[in-house]
């Protein structure tokens, strides 16, 4: 496969993801990082958790620059509860560490380019948890201003712009299970969730651009958060076509003997509700299931 052309403008791209485990969101983030890095951009991933025994190879073999922060003060949950609270706190902790690192980096970059002029652009890609978006929006530009003021006696005319993109897989408030327990427990959970539900929409609105992973999610995002997010575009998860092996091609005859295939690709966990696909397939009845197969992978 031919090498992608070099970018017209080399950007510094920082990606924030809560947990670099093994899943579709993590595969998406790594593929995005690899693609941008292959085009000549500087790419760095910040995450609050990475288990070297449970992550994709690119997240641990040095192919990508991955920094783990935000996991030393706050746990991810207590007794299986308060996950959304700790997700927010861990990301705030993560982004504070990121900004401190960037401040030092800005000063170094300005010294190295003290005789240069022009404009550089920083891009932040925030995935899943939007808590850090308002913080980045407020404080990231101040780092550039302060580092430039420290170089006031030089001839540097280097300017930096910051842009923030939020990638939404699904509104978190719709994933919360609110129907468990009795009336008092449901009421307590509703009170607990209310500020986080409001905060989610407010934090996302601080992004310069919001994208979703499908037309379905895009429609849900507009229903939940309204039109205040602007024109939400769809960016589908990418597929690496460069590693296809000719030996994988099926020669002669149709795959699965020409049967109609119903395919469900999900992680095996409760919120994916794999049982729904099985119940729906069973609901077709024996006659309509003839010549079909349900594949769960």
UniProtKB/TrEMBL annotation:
GO terms for molecular function: GDP-Man:Man(1)GlcNAc(2)-PP-Dol alpha-1,3-mannosyltransferase activity; GDP-Man:Man(2)GlcNAc(2)-PP-Dol alpha-1,6-mannosyltransferase activity. It comes from the Eukaryota. InterPro entries: ALG2 (IPR027054), Glyco_trans_4-like_N (IPR028098). Keywords: Endoplasmic reticulum, Glycosyltransferase, Membrane, Transferase, Transmembrane, Transmembrane helix. The keyword Glycosyltransferase applies. It catalyses: a beta-D-Man-(1->4)-beta-D-GlcNAc-(1->4)-alpha-D-GlcNAc-diphospho-di-trans,poly-cis-dolichol + GDP-alpha-D-mannose = an alpha-D-Man-(1->3)-beta-D-Man-(1->4)-beta-D-GlcNAc-(1->4)-alpha-D-GlcNAc-diphospho-di-trans,poly-cis-dolichol + GDP + H(+); an alpha-D-Man-(1->3)-beta-D-Man-(1->4)-beta-D-GlcNAc-(1->4)-alpha-D-GlcNAc-diphospho-di-trans,poly-cis-dolichol + GDP-alpha-D-mannose = an alpha-D-Man-(1->3)-[alpha-D-Man-(1->6)]-beta-D-Man-(1->4)-beta-D-GlcNAc-(1->4)-alpha-D-GlcNAc-diphospho-di-trans,poly-cis-dolichol + GDP + H(+). Its EC number is 2.4.1.132, 2.4.1.257. Pathway: Protein modification; protein glycosylation. GO terms for cellular component: endoplasmic reticulum membrane. The keyword Chaperone does not apply. Gene3D superfamilies: Glycogen Phosphorylase B. It is found in: Endoplasmic reticulum membrane. Residues 157-241 form the Glycosyltransferase subfamily 4-like N-terminal domain. It is an enzyme of class 2 (transferase). Signal peptide: none annotated. Belongs to the glycosyltransferase group 1 family. Mannosylates Man(2)GlcNAc(2)-dolichol diphosphate and Man(1)GlcNAc(2)-dolichol diphosphate to form Man(3)GlcNAc(2)-dolichol diphosphate. This is Alpha-1,3/1,6-mannosyltransferase ALG2. It comes from Emergomyces pasteurianus Ep9510. The lineage of its organism: Eukaryota, Fungi, Dikarya, Ascomycota, Pezizomycotina.
């Amino acid at each position: 496969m031919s090498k992608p052309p070099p970018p017209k403008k080399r950007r510094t791209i920082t990606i924030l993801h809560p947990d670099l485990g093994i899943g579709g969101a993590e595969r998406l983030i790594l593929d995005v990082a690899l693609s941008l890095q292959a085009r000549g951009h500087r790419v760095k991933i910040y995450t609050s958790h990475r288990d070297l025994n449970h992550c994709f190879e690119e997240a641990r073999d040095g192919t990508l620059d991955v920094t783990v922060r935000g996991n030393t003060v706050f746990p991810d949950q207590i007794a299986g509860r308060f996950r959304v609270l700790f997700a927010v706190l861990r990301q705030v902790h993560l982004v504070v560490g990121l900004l401190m690192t960037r401040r030092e980096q800005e000063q170094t970059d300005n010294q190295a380019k003290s005789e240069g002029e022009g404009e550089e652009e920083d891009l932040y890609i925030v995935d899943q948890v939007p808590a850090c978006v308002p913080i980045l929006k407020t404080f990231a530009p101040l780092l550039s201003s302060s580092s430039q003021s420290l170089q006031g006696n030089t001839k540097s005319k280097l300017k930096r712009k910051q842009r923030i993109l939020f990638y939404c897989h699904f509104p978190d408030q719709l994933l919360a299970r609110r129907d468990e327990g009795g009336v008092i427990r449901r009421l307590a959970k509703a009170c607990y969730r209310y500020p986080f539900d409001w905060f989610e929409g407010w934090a996302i609105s601080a992004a310069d651009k919001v994208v979703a992973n499908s037309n379905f999610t895009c429609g849900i995002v507009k229903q939940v958060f309204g039109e205040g997010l602007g024109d939400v575009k769809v960016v589908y998860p990418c597929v690496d076509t460069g590693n296809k092996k000719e030996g994988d091609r099926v020669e002669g005859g149709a795959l699965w003997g020409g049967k109609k295939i119903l395919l469900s690709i999900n992680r095996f966990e409760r919120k994916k509700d794999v049982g729904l696909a099985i119940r729906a397939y069973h609901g077709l009845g024996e006659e309509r299931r003839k010549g079909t197969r349900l594949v769960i992978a």
